[in-house]
Amino acid sequence: MDTAAAPPFTQVAHEAASRDDAGLAELARTLAAIEAGEPPPAATPHIPWPSATAATDHLATVSQLWPQASGQIIRLARADADATLRILEAALNLNPVWAHDLVALQNALASGGRLDELIALYDRVQRRHPAVPLHLLPHAHPTGLEAAYQRQQDRKRAGMPAVLLNTLPKSGSMFLQEVLARSFDLPTSTIAISDHALTDQVVPGWAAQLAEGGALSQEHLPGTPAVERSLLAAGLDKIIVHVRDPRQAMLSTLHHFTKEYRLCVEIHKPFMPVDYPSLPFDDRAEFMVEHYFAAAVEWIAGWARIADSGSPLKILFSTYEESVSNIPAFFARACQFYGLEGAARIALAEVTPSAALHFRQGRKDEWRTAFRQEHQDRMRALMPDALMARFGWPE
Asked: Is the dihedral of CA 195, 200, 204, 206 positive or negative?
């Protein structure tokens, strides 16, 4: 066989066969068929990985034989959304840990309006590989996945619950995540897929893995009946919902999009203006108020409705204005909420707010001088009086 003239996936299949690696050969053959335009089989062949270590080791073998594997898969899948779904599922069924390298396809699908199908895809993959803790993968990365899993099991045996911290974006999310993760000594997990538009959705299998206990997840889940049902169905009946005056959160989001424009531009929905970073401040503010502010207010209002509905989902509200200025009080409330006041090996960790935690220093009412009066008036008109009174936000 002239492997030099063969498609990349076929070359790898030939290499794997010569090394007597049946799993890798099957992976390459399946992707070679897709590359040639053939649809994947209804039930893509896969290996029931006995552990995260086995899946990671196998992926390391792939990278040795096929250094540009993930890049070639991404380029192959870019043809259209249907092809992206097929190819992503084929690759993940053959090795679920590949999700770490193929996150660009996830973002492309989410920003293209295919979030529901992506959620269903990830749930199918998780069910086919129950021994691999995919909920830990985004934070642990492949090489640390087994250690993160063992840490979750250890903390679960110590009686630590599943901690779900749900935050309005740009409300000190990563800082509070770090405070709780270090203080409770928990690995960080993920139970949702984000489309970067405040409409994240739960992956049922990932939520069920978190619900086993011994881990923490920080999300931006909206307060909708669908999210409420998904959490309860997975066995998660407690959630900390952390909010912030949406006017100040909008200002922080504006600065974040400006600073991280290259990261945001391809995956943010609606798509950001190509010249966003160079626009005058007022123009960037106009874009944010027009496209995101109402959604941020509804995000908060949705959780208030669930809390007031008598739902079996227990909610502990916290606010940026209170928690960040008094971390010990926030931590004490979280401990009480999860019944951990007297638990051993729990102590408030010292975490310094920093740029590394996406923590932007600024006054609580910086929005008053940053936004012009027209924008302030439009935002205030979208904020219900009852919501402002509930969280103590000023006029």
From this structure: positive
Q: What are the phi and psi torsion angles at 178 (to 5°)? A: -65, -40
Q: In what order do the strands lie in the sheet with 188-189?
A: 188-189, 216-219, 163-167, 238-243, 314-319
Phi, psi values for residue 67, rounded to 5°: -55, -30
What secondary structure does DSSP assign to 224-256, as a single string? -HHHHHHHHHHT--EEEEEE--HHHHHHHHHHH
pTM of the model: 0.89
- Rounded Cα distance between 80 and 87, Å, is 11
Convert the pLDDT of each residue in 228-277 to its tens digit.
999 999 999 999 999 999 999 999 888 888 887 766 766 665 567 888 88
User: Tokens in use for 308?
Assistant: 């007031």
Nearest Cα to 366, choosing from 254, 242, 243, 220?
254
> Strand 238-243 vs strand 188-189: parallel, antiparallel, or unpaired?
unpaired
Burial per residue of 98-118, b for 16 or more beta-carbon CB atoms within 10 angstroms, e otherwise: bbbbbebbbbbbbbbebbebb
**Number of Cβ atoms within 10 Å of the Cβ of 250:** 24
- Domains, the chain, in order of start with CATH, read 3-128 (no CATH), 135-391 (3.40.50)
